[in-house]
Design brief:
The complex is a heterodimer of chains A (about 250) and B (about 325). With about 250 residues, chain A is an all-alpha fold. Chain A has a single domain, classed as Ferritin, core subunit, four-helix bundle (Ferritin, Up-down Bundle). Chain A is built from eleven helices and no strands. Chain B is mostly helical. Helix content of chain B is about 65%, strand content about 0%. Chain B is built from 13 helices and two strands; from the N terminus they run ααααααααααββααα. In chain B, strand 1 and strand 2 (about 270-275) form a beta hairpin. Chain B starts with 20 loop residues before the first helix and ends with a helix. The relative contact order of chain B is 0.13. The chains are: A mainly alpha (about 250), B mainly alpha (about 325). The structure holds fe (ii) ion (FE2) (3 copies).
């Protein structure tokens, strides 16, 4: 049980860690000043959530690892984030589409976790859900605004959606870890979130004049850690470099 | 400071007697500590100077995101990453308040942005220096934000209302910036041999450029005299630089680091440190565009702006469609 819970908490924390890192890559390079501020703010929230999830993961594991140890001293195969969040930023449209798809799932997940049988999980979910509600609002507005903007912005958003769609399915897949979480009343069955997710996407894509791809093929291997994309390793070499190069230092 | 080398348009400060009644009333209001507000009459020179000064300050906040943004993805702990993100986010916010303050004087943010991107308007020389190790995040917070505070605290009393109010908001955040920088320096200076080396190296590289932030000596400058009479500049450059040195030297000692100035010593008689002037030739080179990072910084800002054009156009087109739909429904 505690092994499964540890895995599950790493999934939550690695999602926010990896996406927070990706979003922070925008710092100083956004299309307008307001976006620089909003992107930094989103990254900041996600990094804060990471600390909560991974500290709890370390506590559950009971091997003396804290959030920093987990974030900076694991290699690719130990990461448990969805493939979606490790995808490169691409253009601003791709970044915001990735954000929207993740936020739409993330908020449903957190809302369900607020009723978790594990009080610590419920507390983190409650705190995070306030931040993620705002992330989703902002991502929705941007997807709608750019989807239903100019011809160019529309085409770019459709291209972003087409490109990222194969990474959506993984969010709703189940394995032993999920089954154990459902049995213990800790987390929802991933598949149970799909109808609400689809309904939200239908509304937003209609307003954005975007077309949801027909093919429901989904890549897998992120949340299980079995096969990440090539992108994650490059991210880790940057993110973990100082800790790895100077392991005896405190910062 | 973030606005170096602001040239005023006047030929020296007029006496009250030389002024026409309107200008005289304006100056007397400033002398009495009153605030000038956007709708008030103001001399052309005052307006132009302020636009340049506030614009340069705003641009500095924006370009200033880049040297620190350079380390966000390599921050060594989650807490350090969060703190740095929060700081850089603040700087973007400062840029926003300042552009808003400038807009009250009749320019637009887009105009000012175009002038930054074309190289017509400047930003502080300090942001043309590279950040090479994690200790640079400490040195930048400690010295660069420290120098900015030195300049901005008095500007909270500046005569132009919107500028003064922007400064009040900004100063609240700047002290957190300086503290987090000094805190990084403490960790580094008291850390492993490699960390100490990084800390000393950062101080070596940033000391001179930080002293340059106050601009060259302006003791005999008519431009400065006019700005000071208008209270859009509150202290002379040398005065602020001295204050900065006096404050930083004991802080460096506390860190166990050596300020890279062999002639630095306490002058009992003056009650100040004597110190070596920074390399002013280097300063003028940087202003001309020959600093280590001028090209990269401007390129990065231009790329962000150009790459973002479709986003800005798209969002505007959508907003126009929404307005039209709303009108049609009414
Ligand atoms: Fe600032
Ligand atoms: Fe600053
Ligand atoms: Fe600052």
């Amino acid at each position: 049980m505690s092994d499964h819970l540890f895995e599950y908490l790493c999934r939550m924390g690695d999602n926010t860690l990896v996406l927070g890192h990706r979003v922070s890559e925008w710092c100083g390079h956004a299309p307008v000043l307001e976006e620089d501020i909003a992107l930094a703010n989103t990254a900041l929230d996600l990094i804060g959530q990471t600390t909560l999830w991974l500290d709890l993961a370390g506590e559950v594991e009971g091997a003396g690892r804290d959030a920093d140890k987990l974030a900076f001293h694991r290699d690719v195969w130990d990461f448990r984030n969805l493939l979606l969040v490790e995808q490169p930023n691409g253009d601003f449209g791709q970044t915001m589409m990735r954000q929207f798809l993740f936020d739409a799932w993330h908020l449903l997940q957190l809302k369900a976790l607020m009723g978790s049988s594990n009080a610590q999980v419920a507390a983190i979910a409650e705190k995070s859900s306030k931040e993620v509600t705002y992330h989703l609002e902002r991502a929705t507005d941007t997807v709608v605004g750019l989807g239903d903007g100019t011809e160019e912005s529309h085409n770019r958003m459709q291209a972003a959606l087409d490109k990222l769609w194969p990474y959506v399915g993984e969010m709703f897949t189940s394995d032993d870890v999920d089954a154990a979480m459902v049995d213990a009343g800790i987390a929802p069955d991933p598949a149970s979130l799909r109808p609400a997710f689809d309904a939200l996407l239908d509304d937003v894509f209609t307003a954005a004049t975007l077309v949801k791809p027909q093919d429901d093929f989904g890549h897998k291997g992120g949340k299980s850690g079995k096969r990440h994309t090539e992108h994650l390793g490059h991210m880790l070499t940057q993110m973990q470099w100082l800790q790895r190069a100077y392991p005896d230092a405190t910062w | 400071m973030y606005a170096q080398m602001i040239k005023s348009t006047g030929e020296g400060v007029k006496s009250l007697e030389e002024m026409d009644p309107q200008e005289r009333a304006f100056q007397e209001r400033i002398n009495a500590g009153g605030k000038i507000e956007p709708k008030d009459w103001m001399p052309d020179g005052y307006r132009k100077n302020l636009i340049r000064q506030i614009g340069q300050h705003a641009h500095s906040e924006i370009v200033g995101q880049l040297p620190e943004g350079n380390w966000i993805t390599r921050a060594p702990t989650l807490e350090r990453k969060a703190i740095l993100l929060a700081k850089v986010q603040d700087e973007a916010g400062h840029g926003l308040y300042l552009y808003c303050a400038a807009e009250t004087l009749g320019v637009t943010r887009d105009q000012l942005t175009r002038d930054l991107l074309s190289g017509k308007m400047k930003y502080s020389s300090i942001f043309n220096y590279p950040t090479l190790t994690w200790a640079d995040m400490g040195a930048v917070g400690w010295l660069v934000d420290g120098a900015a505070i030195m300049n901005q605290v008095p500007l909270q009393r500046t005569s132009y209302g919107p500028y003064a109010r922007a400064m009040v908001r900004i100063c609240k955040e700047e002290s957190f910036h300086q503290r987090q920088g000094y805190d990084i320096m403490m960790k580094m200076a008291n850390g492993t041999a490699a960390q100490k080396k990084m800390a000393q190296d950062a101080l070596n590289r940033f000391w001179g450029p930080a002293l340059m932030m106050f601009g060259p000596s302006d003791e005999n400058s008519v431009h400065s005299a006019q700005s000071m009479a208008w209270k859009i500049k509150m202290n002379s450059n040398d005065e602020l630089r001295q204050k900065f040195v006096d404050e930083c030297v004991p802080q460096a000692e506390y860190l166990g680091l050596t300020v890279p100035d062999p002639d630095l010593k306490w002058n009992e008689e003056r009650g100040h440190y004597d110190f070596t002037q920074p390399d002013w030739d280097e300063f003028f080179d940087v202003l001309k565009g020959n600093g280590p990072c001028n090209t990269e910084r401007l390129e990065a800002r231009n790329k962000a702006w150009d790459d973002g054009a479709w986003v800005r156009d798209g969002l505007m087109a959508h907003a126009a469609k929404k307005r039209a739909a709303k009108l049609a429904a009414e």
